[in-house]
Amino acid sequence: MTRRARSFYARALSAADRAAVEDALEVEGLDEEIAVLRVHILRLLEEDTPDAGVLQSGMRLLVQALVAQQRLSGRQAEGLGEAAARLVEEFGAVLGVGVATEASRE
């Protein structure tokens, strides 16, 4: 293995952050990131009045991460559209908005 060049961003990071970056470089896949996104979305949903814009952005980011995970793993994205539709329906239910998706019409 060749020695890594010094990071361009290293000068802007604290020693603790530089160590965290080194640890993060060892992680493969998106499982942890997806789990963290789900936890943050759950925290938002548990609020009395969740910020709809932030919640929508979180959901969108989660779907994008799931799509990227599917592509990276080489698995077919079969069923991903259905999962995204369920997310949209759940999001609408939390906000008290009826969202008609193809999955809900069947």
Helix content: 55-70%
Strand element count:
0
Radius of gyration, in angstroms, nearest whole number:
18 Å
Task: Name the structural class.
Answer: mainly alpha
Q: What characterizes the major β-sheet? A: none
| Shape category | flat
Distance between the termini: 53 Å
Strand content: under 5%
Succession of helices and strands: HHHHH
Total helices: the number is 5
Q: Spans of 5+ residues with little confidence (pLDDT < 50)?
A: none
Task: Describe the structure in brief.
64% of the residues lie in helices and 0% in strands. The protein is an all-alpha fold. The chain has one domain (30-105).
Description:
With 106 residues, this protein is mostly helical. The protein is built from 5 helices and no strands. The longest helix has 22 residues, at 52-73. It has one domain (30-105). It has helices spanning 15-24, 31-46, 52-73, 80-95, 102-105.
Lay out the secondary structure:
Elements (H helix, E strand, L loop, with lengths): L14 H10 L6 H16 L5 H22 L6 H16 L6 H4 L1
Helix pairs in contact: 2-3, 3-4
Keywords:
single chain; flat; 106 residues; 5 helices; mainly alpha
